[in-house]
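Good morning C.,

I know you're traveling, so I'll keep this short. The sequence:
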Amino acid sequence: MTGRKTRARAAAATAVLTGCALLLAGCGIKRTGVVESGHAAGVKVPGGKTAAVLYFVSKDGDRLVPVPFSVGTDYTLAPTPLLRLLLNGPSGPASAAGLTTALPKVPDAKSDAVTVSTYAPGKGLTVSVPFAVGGLSQTARNQLVCTVGVSAVPDTLSPVTIQGTDTTLPSADCRTPR
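The tokens, ready to paste straight into the viewer:
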């Protein structure tokens, strides 16, 4: 039995020594600073600069998902029709992917009450909707602010004020949680 114990101890000692040697072998690696890798990645949106972006809610309900929308390469969608598209909820591939909305649907009879003001530098845009906005979730507010703030004025991230039947919410910028 002593032969077995000796061999077992020898094998254990060899394993421990091999592990230590492997750990110590990495000690010769020199530290480096931050490695510059260039600019952030860009994303090509179908429709190029004329494509608008609608923000819908992921199927898990935990984040906003940008959905490009383009009528054609030579046509830019005006802010009010864009807002009406958002309020109708996702359709086509966005709906098939399970995206939803946190916003109430606006009946056709009240669709004329959905408007977006003209852009004013330093002030941004005002979205007017025919429903109460004071009780909207942060996700619903972000849907309105991001869709209009990102797409209404080309190459500009605009602050957006939301005005409803009950109150006017303070101006906000698009902030999509990651």
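Safe travels,
E.
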